[in-house]
Amino acid sequence: xxxxxxxxxxxxxxRLIPATPAAPGPLASFARFVLCxxxxxxxxSFAVPLVTGLMPWAVANAVVTVASTxxxxxxxxxxxxxxxxxxxxxxxxxxxxxxxxxxxxxxVAILVLHTLQTSPSMLTEQIVYLSAxxxxxxxxxxxxxLYVFAGGRTRPTEPVRxxxxxxxxxxxxxxx
Length: 176
Known about the structure:
By secondary structure, the protein is an all-alpha fold. It has helices spanning 10-16, 26-51, 57-80, 89-116, 122-148. It is elongated, with a radius of gyration of 26 Å.
């Protein structure tokens, strides 16, 4: 019997509102961003010094940044910000813009380090690089969450029950 369920039951409401995946909240997104972006960033920080044997540092940083940005954009679209789909060209280009800014931050940090110390140790270089990457990463997270992937977020909708207060009868003022 199709109409046997009352309008207030969960089964009836579930048929009315299609189930959509909920986007993770800000803290869950940030944790996922750190896991994906930070993990790829740490791997990239080890790749850059290895590639510098083949090319200048700035070029090696650019190559590693491009490769890691493409990978991270896909991970962020599918996992971090909860769209479940691959990133489109718009997201890749916008993410690339934020990665270019991160590249500039890391490059300037390393160039300043090399200006202050002509031959820094690899540990010092890693500390400076990872610190600059961390600061740039926080900026990227905010930009990606609030702008690049903001349109793909959906929130589960639940029916809102509004109970309007009973109308009170108009009372005349006692002193009038």
